[in-house]
Structure formats: C-alpha cells, structure tokens
C-alpha cells in the first residue's frame, strides 16, 4: 500500500502540472484493462474537475456490458501532455507515438520493457488490474457507488474467467464486498461470456476443424480473423473453448493477413512463460504472442 501511495503522490503532482491527460490501455484489449481504464478515469475526473481526461485504446470498437465504455475512443486526441498506461507490458503496446509526454504505468503483470523503468507501479499479487484501481479509489477517498462497483467486478470476473483462475482469498473477499443485490450476476455473466447464435456456430466450426492431442490434453484450433466481429467476440469464444473438459491446454491460432496471433490458455501449464519467449506476454494461465508469416 505504501508503494502505491508513493506512486500516486508522484502521479497526482504531474496531473496538477498538466492540462490534458491521456488514459490509454494496451492494444488487443482484454476486459480487465478496459474496466480498469474506465474506473481510473472516474476516480481522477472526480478529483481533478478542471482537467481534461481522454480515454484511448487503439483497437477498441465496442463493449455492450456497460454504456460508459463508449467513452473509450480509438483515435488519439490532438494534444495531451501526460499519459497513464494500463497494463501494456511495454510502451509500444499502448499504441501511441509521443515520446515527449511523461508516461505512468499501472500493471499487475511483470513489465517487459527493460528500457523503461520510471513511474511504474506493478503489483503481481493482484489478480487483475481492476483490483489495483479499487485500491486507488480507497486511497483517494473516491465515493464508491453501484456503477463503480460494477466496473471493478467486470474487470475482476472477466480477467479471472468468473473466478476460474482465482488463487487469492483477497480477490474473493473483494468480489464479496463489491457485490450488490441490485447487480444481476446472471445478466453480468451473460454479458461478459455470452455468445450470439452466429458466434456459437463459429465456436462449433473451431471445435470441428481443430485437433485434440489426448495424451497431452492439448486442443489446437484455427480461425481467420475476417470471421470474427471484434476482440470481444474472440475473448468470449476462447473462454467457452476452454470449457472442453477433456483438454487442459488450449491453443487458438488466428490468421490476420501476414501474421499469426497465437492465443494460449491452460489450467496446468505456465503459458505466460511460453508467450514471453516469442515476444508476447500475459498471465501464467492466459497469454499470447504473434509471429509474421
């Protein structure tokens, strides 16, 4: 907590010196980084009412869970003098090219950019970035309302596969604390992981054309990106793919023009280390990388 307080002390001083602040999340966004980005926006906007905050994600299209996600734009504002990056693993993965802006990074993964060591807050004990944002809200005495609780829940539950990958009692206690009877968990689950009939057909196509290695308990599937509506659809498909009980490790190879995006999920193997060897990153049980073809 003291480390986070010191980090926030530096950040708040620089926000005071700035006029236009960009809150950016990593390319190919997952639901946790988007929820964390939105939650942090509300905290800082409340504390600095005279400052302009912009939400940016290079690849973001839409997220129907909460209408407030529409605040995130995929075009950079004309000007900004400070950047807050949400779990990018490297500056490059923020999708911005503005070296003259000071950058702060908040992440719960190991940071891979060895050339950038300033203004980092990394908490690998947090199972989602949303948990860090919740701690920031408490430190800055932000009034935590129903909408904010829902945003943090979306981040935690989305990143943990609806607590499937949760190992931390602290995370479970926080979920219990955030839960409100007015929040429908059934509707939230369907919003985070539900597919349309067309998307279920696509999932079936992957299962039928894929290959299962019984001894290794590995399933390998293939898909062309043209068939996928957006990153959100892909995330849901991958999650439901991992529900196949005969397999414990899943590889989905997505073809995009002259590149292959390899999505890795596992209940047993540290796929995060595999992804790092190919220049990728992510969690211990959920990660990915890309290679040119």
Report on this structure:
The protein is globular and about 55 Å long. Helix 2 runs parallel beside helix 3, helix 3 packs antiparallel against helix 4 (146-159) and helix 7 packs across helix 8 (231-241). It has helices at residues 2-17, 31-47, 129-139, 146-159, 169-178, 185-193, 197-209, 231-241, 271-277; strands at residues 20-25, 52-56, 82-86, 102-107, 120-122, 211-213, 218-224, 249-256, 259-266, 281-282, 286-292. It folds into 2 domains: 2-186, inorganic pyrophosphatase (n-terminal core) (Alpha-Beta Complex), CATH 3.90.1640.10; 197-292, Roll (Diaminopimelate Epimerase, Chain A, domain 1), CATH 3.10.310.30. The chain is α/β, with parallel strands linked by helices and 293 residues long. Helix 8 links the parallel strand 7 and strand 8 (249-256). A 6-stranded mixed β-sheet has the order 6-7-8-9-11-10. Strands 2-1-3-4-5 form a 5-stranded parallel β-sheet, covered by helices on one side. 37% of the residues lie in helices and 20% in strands.
